Amino acid sequence: MAGVTVPEVKDVLRIEQRFSAVERVGRWVVPRRLELAVEWCEVTLDFTQAVMTQDTLRIDVAICGNTLTLVTGPGVVVDADALRLEHSRIRIRQSPVPGTPVTLRVELVGEKQYGRVVVRPPRRTFGQWLLRKPTSLSAGG
Fold first, then answer.
1. Which stretches of the chain drop beneath a pLDDT of 50?
2. Any idea of the CA torsion for 110, 82, 30, 28, to the nearest 10 degrees?
3. Model confidence pLDDT, tens digit, residues 13-45
4. Model pTM greater than 0.85?
5. Which residue, 74, 77, 130, is CA-closest to 106?
């Protein structure tokens, strides 16, 4: 196909960080596997505009401190059954829309110490909040 660019998909993306923020937001290419080796960092992975090239993402978690936040969109489900928590807590707010196929299954594997794991849908805009509309509806309609 001429003129079509296919995003480069990495097999493994390893992020090592200490004492700062890690963000993947907007349009980013989801790797096949993500290794998070971070200490005392806020980590935000926003899947609402991410480019997904496969149906499963395994995240190997080795995080100490602060919060790991996964922002999910329609069709993105998170499985945290293989995640060990030590002095940590997890809050998963997934509200699957009936009839929406699963486009990405995120598997959290490893250990989270001293902090939180938050899985949530995207926040509503002020207009959506004011009109009590869910994020799946546009602010104007």
1. 1, 137-141
2. -70
3. 999 999 999 999 999 999 999 999 999 999 999
4. no
5. 77
